[in-house]
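Methods: example folding runs. The two proteins below were folded one after another, and each record is reproduced exactly as written to the output file, sequence line first and structure-token line second.
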Amino acid sequence: MNAVARMLAHPFIDHALLAGTGVAILCGLTGYFVVQRGEVFAGDALGHVAYTGAMAALAAGINPRAGLFVATVAVGLALGVGGVRGGTDEVVIGSFFSWVLGLGVLFLAYYTTHRSGGNGSANVNVLFGSIFGIGASAALTAALIAGGAITVLLVISRPLLFATIDPGVAAAAGIPVRILGAVFLGIVGATVAEATQLVGAIVVLGLLAAPAATAARLTNRPWRAFWISALLAVGAVWAGIALSYRFAAAPASFTITSVATSGYLAATLFDRFRPPRACRSGPQYC
């Protein structure tokens, strides 16, 4: 308890927990639908779009947060509008993904040669995050943005689940499946933009997909898995922050994603080796 009290006495830990908790809840809830809709590849692509957007903003001399949000939300909406079910076309995403990476390198080259004199670590922070470097104002902003995105997601969650399970029947029932899918991918873009600032564009997919995949392994009830995913993401962030503080050589982005993916590995092993449901009801049913 004394060690925890000493850790919480540092303002940068408080800021990291405030921003990290809000973003983790958003990642967990959004990630559940990302996994269920088979849009993990789109989430990965948006992580690289976030990098390019941030580097474009830095090259232009403006706040990288603006570049993150404009790029990821715009591309997410575009993928949703152009997708067959408001979601993904892997050929389109793969081609666009490769071009965006090249564009990010172009902006990086310009930023390095023209504007990086006063902020040489910005490229590293975009790639790998800087959860311990976030200030009080930025932490509050991140929590508020996460809260707004969570609110929108909760509003559309029921029709989105219907459209995820059976898009054909949902469309026949009058649900605007494509528009709903586009809005959802816009939320995914906002989620990636916020999470990139904390864990980095390279590993953001781990926090977006691993807790949701773990929750899906633990229960087949959609809403229970939806909330378990959020709890697992928060647990990964809290544990990752504590581990990174305890072992200073381990970056927070590594510890957070390691905890998240370890949870998925444990859930996979548990799901594989546990007895069938009938056997758990009694040996006479095996």
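Second run, written to the same file directly after the first:
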Amino acid sequence: MRTTADPTATDPTTADPTAARPGGPARPFPPGSRTVAPSPLDPGATRDPHRIHRTLREEFPLTYDPLLRAWVLSRYADVATALTDSRFTHGHRPGDPPCARAHVDVDVEAMRSVTERTAYVLARRIAERPQADLVADFCHWLPAGTVAAAVGVPYRDMMRLVRGRAAGALAGECGAQIAVREKALASFLGNVLVDPDQVAALRDAPAGLVGRAWTESLRRDPPVQVAVRRTSAEVPVSGGVVPAGASVALLVGSAGRDPERFREPDRFDPLRDDPGQLTYGSGFCPAVVLAGLEAEYALRALFTAMPRLRLADGFRPTHTGLITRAPRSLIVRPGG
């Protein structure tokens, strides 16, 4: 069955009730299910997009969204394909092959040194406070500070020079993705600090375990929830065929919680044996390297400067946002 590209021909927000998942049998709608697809932009999605994503994955794997003016893909297999298939164009993801080929002269050890130094400076600045907000006081500064130090911008000028378009001039397209790294770091720290067992496991963990926790956070709570691509040809996907020349919204946040790909997908589990994330490609890229280093040294610096660091009494991180998503605040007690 092909879902029509002409919104006037049929209702483009309906899906084929017998659409099959790849490798699985056709699945009819369950009794009482919807016949019109919800939109990722529906009211309430900022607070809880996961219910909408679940409905889209299960009942509307291919649907046209008039609010997004794009076809929507929500299953892991389809989103992962769209992020790498050459028939989907006009997108940039750090770590993808074209990005990796552009970076040949990058000193990783220098990046590591700069990231470590910046993280420890920031951690020491908040260590003596009775209470702090790690989003405002740490996550907001570490990615910008790392880029600033790497290109020789004085600390006092870094926020003015390294944000927005200036970042692109200083560090290229990937280094300019500072806001994305901020949000990813905030989600990562929130996922770790909300569980005392995770704090204990990661306090003095080797880099490999911290890296697995970082990948798991990117899967469960990616900073970029929706990526947009355009097709250069017809592409078969779950539920139908995406037309040529169409805008396609890839629900990265939905794909990361697809139970067809991940067991217990809503659970944060750094030790899971089915890891994976779609925020970054697998190739070399300064933005990907920096993001991982920032996660590693954020934990090391925070736990070194504040061995008893914990969330403030009664506080739990709340993720918000539609296109990008992360906690707006992480209120902590540096002294325990």
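Comment on the second run: Confidence is low (pLDDT under 50) at residues 1-33.
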